[in-house]
């Protein structure tokens, strides 16, 4: 498994990096047989340390958790505890998908754009078709089943997930509705 351990304006020592690897390996060995990558970022917010952890699994799922504490090791432990709880909750579903998927999830390259919010409504009325692009990024769209997409969205605590439906090969969207339910957009291409 690849690790990317970094700090935002704080130094991360070798002892902490070793501790991160040990803790994540111990936790992930219980739930996910084939994690592929872990990104751990430490930062400081006022008097607390913050540990943001994202683990990419070969099943296509991304588990993320954030922990805060007054000590950096305690922040890591809090983050690991939250991730452990998430993976324990989804253990049965992860195992079922893992058995059915012998190969890692295919990823489709795509462009992602950040558009500037209009400051003045009059400006947006005069040029509605030409929004200002603030940033252009590369992203990956996973090829998943609808159930896996919903699970991925819930694990990432994301409000929306764009994915390629394995059954139809079309681009689909799942999202959390205001009423708490999950919505699914599946454009029809026949006809």
TrEMBL record:
Coiled-coil ranges from the UniProt annotation: 73-100
One Gene Ontology cellular component annotation held by this UniProt entry: cytosolic small ribosomal subunit
Taxonomy, superkingdom: Bacteria
Domain Sigma 54 modulation/S30EA ribosomal protein C-terminal: 130-183
Chief location bin: cytoplasm
This protein's UniProt keywords: Coiled coil, Cytoplasm, Translation regulation
GO biological process: negative regulation of translational elongation
Similarity comment: Belongs to the HPF/YfiA ribosome-associated protein family. Long HPF subfamily.
Function (record text): Required for dimerization of active 70S ribosomes into 100S ribosomes in stationary phase; 100S ribosomes are translationally inactive and sometimes present during exponential growth.
Subunit and partners: Interacts with 100S ribosomes.
Identification of the protein by name: Ribosome hibernation promoting factor
Organism: Flavimaricola marinus
Taxonomic lineage of the native organism: Bacteria, Pseudomonadati, Pseudomonadota, Alphaproteobacteria, Rhodobacterales
